[in-house]
Amino acid sequence: MHELAVTEGILKTAIEASQKNGARPITAIHLVIGELSSIVDDSIQFYFDLLSKGTLAENAALRFRREPSVAICRDCAHQFNATAPLEPQCPQCGSARLQVKGSREFFIESIEVEDENTRR
After folding, report:
1. What is the pLDDT of residues 35-60, one digit of tens each?
2. Domain boundaries, the chain
3. More confident residue, 17 or 2
């Protein structure tokens, strides 16, 4: 259910950005999500479709890009893809001393607005 609050934040940020730049309709919002984050794309899309009605972001496309996560063994330096559920040990040496990078980020990468020349 935390996707509702997350989606409200996305919508608020996008609308404020559009208003600061001439209040043009938003056509797309590009989101970056870490592979190990708990964000569910379909839930974000569902809430966005509901919340954006009647706003500058109505009918805007949400574009999701998942960022891969990498686990690095602190003992043998072996690197491997980190997916949920996270491996408890290095597949190379068996060490449990792992460092995970690029796992939980979530941010708006860019916002596209209607070209003012195509506006009616």
Report:
1. 888 889 999 999 999 999 999 999 99
2. 2-68+101-113
3. 17
- In the CATH scheme, what architecture does the domain 2-68+101-113 have? 2-Layer Sandwich (3.30)
Question: What pLDDT, on the 0 to 100 scale, is given for residue 52?
Answer: 97
Q: Which two tokens stand for residue 9?
A: 């934040």
> Which two three-digit tokens encode residue 79?
């690197």
Q: What is the mean pLDDT of residues 87-111?
A: 91
Phi and psi (nearest 5°) for 21? Answer: -120, 40
How far is 67 from 55, CA to CA, in rounded Å? 29
Residue in 62, 63, 64, 60 with CA at minimum distance from that of residue 26 = 60
Element (H, E) at 14: helix 2-20
For 82, other C-beta atoms within 10 Å of its C-beta total 22
